[in-house]
Amino acid sequence: MILVLDIGNSSAKAGLWDGQRMVYSGRIAGQSDVEALVAKASRMDRAGAVSVVPGQNDAWTRRVHAATGCHLEFFTAHSRLPFAMHYETPDTLGADRIAAAAGAWLSPMRTPGRAALVIDAGTALNMELVRTDGAYVGGIIAPGPELMRRALSAGTAQLPLIPLVDPAGVTGASTEKALQSGVMNGFMAMTRGLMAGLLEEAGVAGSEVYVAATGGWAAWLADRMDGIDEVRPDLVLEGVVALVEHGMDT
């Protein structure tokens, strides 16, 4: 069994991989949560993590070692990766973005010769592209619906903080509906346009790319736009598994 962690600013997500599938994934906070998670496994062989909060890494290393006896391996842009790193500033590249790209690139759904594109649709909209030649070239960071609605309210005197609900069409017949249309339809149009621009710039046709979507808005997007092959809620954790197993192959 492999224990994997995605350590974020406000919480950490953990998963248990049995060699074939993610048998558990969920949010964890501290030592007792790690111990409860480990109790679900008959044995623990490896542990891997990505973190965007380096100051917490030592604490998580101690927690995991105390609960499992395993060394917690952290992956960064300087780790052994399954693709070539062509990002101009790798030291600024979030480890969660690397894991998501690895999860898509090593997915059994991606047939050889196809590129891999990640659409991570959460608070922010992140995209990661690994070209057909196996080069990670970067991608896009843009605001998601939550940031868009807060910016509109905070940056103006009279616009309210709207609920994020699916607009019934494009034309908003009230201020609230107009805002909802602008945010939600704008988010979808932005995603479509940025995805098309990335692939065009890389010289990748739509039939030559495997597209995996993750994040809280992934299913919403997949229902409304073409080109998404799979919605994978645990893509970052699955990417950490892929990085652990890729390292084991050396």
Kindly describe this structure.
It is built from seven helices and eleven strands. It is α/β, with parallel strands linked by helices and 250 residues long. The chain folds into two domains: 84 residues, Nucleotidyltransferase, domain 5, CATH 3.30.420; 124 residues, 2-Layer Sandwich (Nucleotidyltransferase, domain 5), CATH 3.30.420. The chain has a six-stranded mixed sheet, sandwiched between helices. Strands 3-2-1-4-5 form a five-stranded mixed sheet, sandwiched between helices. A hairpin with a 2-residue loop joins strand 7 and strand 8. Helix 1 packs parallel to helix 2 and helix 4 crosses helix 5. The longest helix has 28 residues. It is globular. The mean pLDDT is 92.
Question: Can you describe this structure in just a few lines?
Answer:
This protein has helices at about 30-40, 55-70, 95-105, 145-155, 175-200, 220, 235-250, and strands at about 1-5, 10-15, 20-30, 45-50, 70-75, 85, 115-120, 125-130, 135-145, 210-215, 230. It is an alpha/beta fold. The chain has a six-stranded mixed sheet, sandwiched between helices. It has a five-stranded mixed sheet with strand order 3-2-1-4-5, sandwiched between helices.
Question: What would the keywords be for this entry?
Answer:
single chain; 250 residues; Nucleotidyltransferase, domain 5; five-stranded mixed sheet; globular
